[in-house]
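seq as requested:
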Amino acid sequence: HTALMLNELKTSNRNLRERLRQTGQGNIIGSCATMKAIFRTIKKVAPTDLSVLVLGETGTGKELVARDIHRLSDRSQAPFVSINCGAIPENLLESELFGHKKGSFTGALTDKLGKFESANGGTLFLDEIGDMPVALQTRLLRVLAEREVLPLGSDTPVALDVRVITATHRDLAALV
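struct tokens:
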């Protein structure tokens, strides 16, 4: 009797996992029309090198969407680097994103790669981009346009091949 029950549980578990796999994509689960539309959009933008802005309330899975875009892209074997722009103070965020050279400021005891260079060849996910200070947004725009980054304290720009995916819960149009 116990063996039969165990076999039935294993079969039920396998069937549930298969149904779950069919109703989702990657680590995202959903089968409603809205989720299916999101899955189609992910599949459409993933093979491109377009920068992507993911909008949604806190906790809705914006990073899961970004990871899925990366997973389905030609960059999937390269790094996926994530940074929360709203959780890092402005004076540290610039160094985190763009890197710095030894001695470029007090406390810079060694060279440090920024997130852009760390993600080179792969995908950089900038979470809560709407919380990024305006001064850094200007620098970010230059990096996106020129496809090169200038670490703090350096005179030599570093060429980049990175896809940028950003996300925010804020209404960017209203902020503009």
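The beta strands are 24-25, 28-29, 52-55, 80-84, 123-127, 148-149, 158-159, 163-168.
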